[in-house]
């Protein structure tokens, strides 16, 4: 699971699997011109990502393929779960759309021993995005109003999941995709948890580890509380949205600004010997002290270019979303949307005032020039 703080080992077979699929003239009698997305076919350790030409829709699509060399039961379950969730959200806005359901391709590979080995490539097709939010932020083309609007859409997408009792559990900028029409959609639902599902979770096989990215994970998840109270996953999504908001306006990730490198290991070590069923009570006894010892930074201290007119509102919003004490965390989308709207109004009002001052200054200069009071 991706919350592991260890070093990811290089995958010696990944390139071979990428080349196998890229060499296919057609896949499933439907997909051609198969090319990896990025140098390594995506960044997921357990999946391979490609673009392809779809003969049915006559458009380019994304192919998500489960890594044939992986035998991890949790990740196989994630791959199946994402397909099920995507089918549920077919035709609904704000969520990445499935183009074709899951299928399977078998390919035999000749080995040095002369004995062929057959690999199964499980895959499904998705809308092809232009880029993800992380890459979009790196281009620095979004002004401050654009960032507020994008964040509002990201919150709306997560709200759509939560209304359906689905916790995403891996919210971060790369998992929001900008489509061809410039709309923003939430993606990567493999780690999502349907709280209404009767299917038992697999977390008991993975101890204390959380399925999300460590940089956007709240401390209670490293303390193993999700095993005792899965619904805390909704609060974890709010925390990750707050960390995303901080990153959008500070220009750097929140985690490194608050915690040192040993924080996760120390918390895991402190909680791993606590018996299941007692972790929440033990954690609740010291979480206030933990929060007091790790103050959340001021965005403007990290990025002095953050507009003063919205600085305080942004700090208040992200800090409430990222409250380290999960009991005090903001978990109301109604409140979030109201505060984002207030920040938008402040920014737009400030911009209008600045534009009026600029026009008056220009008109004054023109009058002085016309009367000879100012030489050209």
In short:
The chain is α+β, with helices and mostly antiparallel strands and 376 residues long. Helices cover 43% and strands 15% of the residues.
Description:
This protein is α+β, with helices and mostly antiparallel strands. The chain folds into two domains: 1-128, Phosphorylase Kinase, domain 1 (2-Layer Sandwich), CATH 3.30.200.20; 130-376, Transferase(Phosphotransferase), domain 1, CATH 1.10.510. It is 43% helix and 15% strand. Strands 1-2-3-5-4 form a five-stranded antiparallel β-sheet. It has a three-stranded antiparallel β-sheet with strand order 6-8-9.
How much is the radius of gyration in Å? 24 Å
Extended strand count:
10
Instruction: Based on the coordinates given, report the CATH architecture of the largest domain.
Output: Orthogonal Bundle
Secondary-structure element string: HEEEHEEEHHEEEEHHHHHHHHH
Overall residue-averaged pLDDT value = 89
Q: Spatial order of the strands in the main sheet?
A: 1-2-3-5-4
Helix segment count?
13
- CATH class annotation of the largest domain: Mainly Alpha
* Tally of domains: 2
**Main β-sheet: number of strands, strand sense, barrel status?**
5 strands, antiparallel
Q: How far from one another are the termini? A: 68 Å
What is CATH's topology name of the largest domain? Transferase(Phosphotransferase), domain 1
Uncertain residue segments: 1-8
The chain-level structural class is: alpha+beta
């Amino acid at each position: 699971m991706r919350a592991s703080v260890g070093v990811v080992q290089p995958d010696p077979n990944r390139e071979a699997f990428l080349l196998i699929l890229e060499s296919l003239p057609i896949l499933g009698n439907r997909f051609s011109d198969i090319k990896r997305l990025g140098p390594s076919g995506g960044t997921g350790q357990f999946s391979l990502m490609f673009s392809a030409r779809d003969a049915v829709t006559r458009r380019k699509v994304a192919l998500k393929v489960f890594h044939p060399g992986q035998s991890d039961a949790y990740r196989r379950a994630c791959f199946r779960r994402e397909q099920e969730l995507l089918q549920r959200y077919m035709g609904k806005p704000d969520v990445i759309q499935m183009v074709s359901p899951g299928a399977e391709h078998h390919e035999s590979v000749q080995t040095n021993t002369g004995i062929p080995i057959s690999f199964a490539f499980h895959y499904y097709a998705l809308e092809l995005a232009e880029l993800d939010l992380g890459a979009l932020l790196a281009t620095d083309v979004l002004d401050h109003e654009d960032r507020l609007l994008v964040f509002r859409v990201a919150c709306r997408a997560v709200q759509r999941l939560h209304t359906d009792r689905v916790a995403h559990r891996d919210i971060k900028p790369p998992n929001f995709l900008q489509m061809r029409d410039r709309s923003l959609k939430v993606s990567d639902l493999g780690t999502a948890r349907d709280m209404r599902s009767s299917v038992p979770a697999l977390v008991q096989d993975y101890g204390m580890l959380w399925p999300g990215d460590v940089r956007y994970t709240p401390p209670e998840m490293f303390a193993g509380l999700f095993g005792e109270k899965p619904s805390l996953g909704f609060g974890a999504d709010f925390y990750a949205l707050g960390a995303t908001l901080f990153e959008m306006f500070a220009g750097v990730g929140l985690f490194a600004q608050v915690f040192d490198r040993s924080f996760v290991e120390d918390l895991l070590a402190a909680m791993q010997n606590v018996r299941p069923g007692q972790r929440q009570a033990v954690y609740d006894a010291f979480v206030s002290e933990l929060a007091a010892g790790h103050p959340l930074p001021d965005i403007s201290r990290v990025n002095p270019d953050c507009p003063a007119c919205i600085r305080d509102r942004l700090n208040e919003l992200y800090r409430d979303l990222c409250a380290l004490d999960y009991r005090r965390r903001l978990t109301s989308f109604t409140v979030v949307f109201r505060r984002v709207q207030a920040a938008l109004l402040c920014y737009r009002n400030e911009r209008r005032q600045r534009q009026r001052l600029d026009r008056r200054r220009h008109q004054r200069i023109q009058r002085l020039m016309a009367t000879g009071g100012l030489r050209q």
